[in-house]
Amino acid sequence: MKAKRWMRWTGLALCVLLLAACSTGPVRRVSEPSARIQQLTVRADGSWSAELRIENFSSIPMRFDSLDLALRLGDDAAGQLQAKPALSIGPESADIITVVVKPQAAAKLAVAEALAAGRGVSYTLEGHIDATPDQGKLRSFDIKRSSALSPAPGLPGVLR
């Protein structure tokens, strides 16, 4: 009789503990976002169209309010990527925005030479992105990303 009673109380206690553990809900983690150039297109007027991929690594949605990123090709300043996308991106997701860049002369020449020779160019983005986590306050995240772009086959004037 005592064994049955003990087993009932033990089973009941385990059920209560299990239910209590489930009631905490998902973890709300805010992680630093990332930005990278997905595609750079040379436009007819000499400016560039940069398709910028913004990645939200947080476990909650974030609204990306503004960005200000300095673009460098190799060691040379190329231009400034500035935008106010007011874009909401879901948890652990990404989205693309297009930013027009007025490149400096040395950067224009470097991209033109790379496209003509069929070779890639390295780039660095450095600056900040302002974002608001779901049910949170506006935060500024420092961004520094280095990568490379290569000519897209069959697409003249396009680097990916």
Give structural notes.
There is one protein chain. The chain is an alpha+beta fold and 160 residues long. The protein has one domain (34-149): Immunoglobulin-like. The chain has helices spanning 2-22, 105-117; strands at 34-42, 48-56, 62-73, 76-83, 87-89, 93-101, 121-133, 139-149, 158-159. Strands 3, 4, 5, 7 and 8 form a five-stranded antiparallel sheet that branches. Strands 6-2-1-9 form a four-stranded antiparallel sheet, with no helix packed on it. The longest helix has 21 residues, at 2-22. The protein is elongated. It starts with a helix and ends with a strand. The model has no long low-confidence stretch (mean pLDDT 91). This is LEA type 2 family protein.
Lay out the secondary structure.
Layout: H1 2-22, E1 34-42, E2 48-56, E3 62-73, E4 76-83, E5 87-89, E6 93-101, H2 105-117, E7 121-133, E8 139-149, E9 158-159
InterPro entries: LEA_2
Domain Late embryogenesis abundant protein LEA-2 subgroup: 52-134
Pfam families: LEA_2 (PF03168)
Strand fraction: over 45%
Tally the beta strands. 9
- Enumerate how many helices there are, as a single number: 2
The CATH class is identified as Mainly Beta
Number of domains: 1
How would a textbook summarize the main sheet? Answer: 5 strands, antiparallel
- The structural class is alpha+beta
How large, in whole angstroms, is the Cα Rg? 24 Å
Order of helices and strands: HEEEEEEHEEE
The CATH architecture assignment turns out to be: Sandwich
**Low-confidence spans:** none
Q: What is the terminal-to-terminal distance?
A: 75 Å
Give the fraction of residues assigned to helices. Answer: 10-25%
Shape: elongated
Give the averaged pLDDT, no decimals. Answer: 91
